[in-house]
Amino acid sequence: MQEEESLRILVGTEGGSFPLEERGTCEASEQWDFVLVAAHHTQKNKEQRQRFLEELRRKGFEWKESKGQKQVFFGIRAEDKIFELYRTLLMEPKGPAPGVESATPASVPDTTRIRIVNFVLNQTKVAGDTFEDLKKDRVFEATFPLHKGEEELEKTWARWRNLVRRQPIDDIRNYFGEKVALYFAWLGWYTYMLVPAALVGLLVFLSGFALFDASQISKEICEARDVLLCPLGHQSRSFQPLSSTCTFAKLTHLFDNEGTVLFAIFMALWATVFLELWKRKRAEVVLHWDLYGWDEDQEEMALQLINCPDYQLQPHQHSYLRSTIILVLSVFMICFMIGMAHLLVVYRVLAAALLGTLPFLEKQVTTAVVVTGALVHYVIIVIMTKVNKYVALKLCDFEKPRTFLERERKFTIRLFTLQFFAHFSSLVYIAFILGRINGHPGKSTRLAGLWKLEECHLSGCMMDLFVQMAIIMGLKQTLSNCIEYLCPWLTHKFRLMTACTGGRWPCDPQLQEWQRNYLLNPVTTFSLFDEFMEMMIQYGFTTVFVAAFPLAPLLALFSNLVEIRLDAIKMVRLQRRLVPRKAKDIGTWLHVLETIGVLAVIANGMVIAFTSEFIPRVVYKYRYGPCRQGNQPAEDCLKGYVNHSLSVFYTKDFQDPVEGFENVTECRYRDYRNAHDYNLSEQFWFLLAIRLAFVILFEHVALCIKLIAAWFVPDVPQSVKNKVLEEKYRILCDKMRSSSKSTDV
Description:
- It is a single chain.
- This protein is α+β, with helices and mostly antiparallel strands.
- It has three domains: 2-145, no CATH class; 169-616, no CATH class; 721-745.
- The chain has helices spanning 2-11, 20-23, 43-58, 80-90, 110-123, 131-136, 151-156, 169-176, 178-210, 216-223, 246-252, 259-288, 296-307, 320-355, 365-399, 404-432, 461-500, 509-518, 527-543, 552-574, 588-611, 614-624, 641-645, 682-712, 718-744, and strands at residues 34-39, 61-67, 71-78, 142-144, 228-229, 240-241, 439-440, 443-444, 446-447, 451-452, 646-650, 666-670.
- Strand 9 (446-447) and strand 10 form a beta hairpin.
- It is elongated, with a radius of gyration of 32 Å.
- The protein starts with a helix and ends with a helix.
């Protein structure tokens, strides 16, 4: 009797359920489209729930209530007439989607059922309150479609041992819908295309090892024991021999060599080819799914009419006042992001001054500042991601978009813009500003009149940019992936343990299934969006500053192999089922990819021109070095380059003499200035003109290559165009035959 009473409490006898005696010990599970979950609340909340459920019944839904120990579960199922209306409105064939097996010819795919039911649930209002309002008022706790038939996906896709196995895109589409399937199709294609980019980047990086000891510049630096460098900002009381930078000079040559330019041009071409080939791949997939002519606005209106037959079309609206306010607020947020980058600059200056006082870090201050600065920047990125999402949502709500799809597009653009500045502002500072506004020895620019501004590493700014890229991208890929997997896994385990301590698991298999799904981690409309955003930021790191970090494609390749299975495991085994969404492309993200491709050309051209030593080396080689005017000397063409690239400063011009070095009369520093008045020299202005000319030439050449590649590789394969053409021809012929028969009769 005690066991039967426990089961009666777990199963419940209220609402649409029926007494335990009529159930038997365990009954077969029924099929439901959605499950709503609520806690045991007051009578007022019960009345609100009841009114909402009755409104659903009026719209053609069946529901059934079952009580657990702590929650009340409601199974929701839509009548077939709703889906027949959907077919009628969109003129769909009476049959399942391609690749979906069905016992009856008129059955509806699960993805379509779930999508329609979810739309009606979210649009249903009771006394002016939507379902989201009811959840905020704790009338309902959660809503979710059930995981059903996911075992095959788990076996063939959502396991770590399938790391390099081909993804079953059609199966993913049939279970999660087109939006999720296109995400994984794009991610798989992106990962596949990273292979040649990773190999070329690795080759460029390793080619530097061939010149590790043979580089003329490295030789001169390593042998320059008598050349003293002027004190840097954090080393204001000491001189260092140029040879002390020997190791870093050799390391810098690994990624700052002649191959850097070719690799940057290659990546510009790669980005274009990748996008064009993806468009072709997308066209083939969408044609296979019979979605080539599908229209998302028509889909939205059809769902609105299904939910409310009296629905009135909402026209497009535009307000110059709202647009102006949004523009001003967006610019303010961008300036705020730039301000955060300036705070990072202040941190690095103060950190350099503080760490410079530590004896054991006296010679490694620059490296310590770069590393800690990158870590601080990563923490800022994590914090600002949450702030940016909140701001972007508020801006979208203020703009009052017409539909959910329009809101999603606007939100994507807003958030990506803010995230781009949050992630790349410090890299822009290091690449193009660091060490360029510091003045010169004897007259240094100081922060608050006290601390000297940060200098580039003695071996050049490329080393700082390389370290910053490596740390941020490495942390974002490794640490983020670990958190992305461990947090859902631990949360799910905790929810299971908490549920198990509450009592026995119900015998009713239907309630068991509902509770099992309830204990999975909840999902939101941002679940898939966050995955896309993570990949877009990674794509930016892979292309925008790739000239300074040629190993970025290789790191992205390894990360994506893990990311695909990690996302699959999360979606199938750790999270509630995502609501399927229909789509025929990746939407606004394609425009984001194209924008990143253009920014990559500009940024890499400027990195080569202003951050690396490529331009100064070439100019010296053909204008100032032994090989000038077509000479063919026996020595290396870059002989004497190091001495040429260092300016002279006389120690007598120091405002505060350096104690202990009274016998030192001059020191050298990285710049192009005259020795007599320390003004910028003729070589500086000549180099500046060459740098600007190179940027213009590089960008035009790279963009021309992108345009030629885009023209050469059609967006849509001819086979897809021909199939669409044949289908249109077939439809017209059928209409012609039907018209002829009608005339004959």
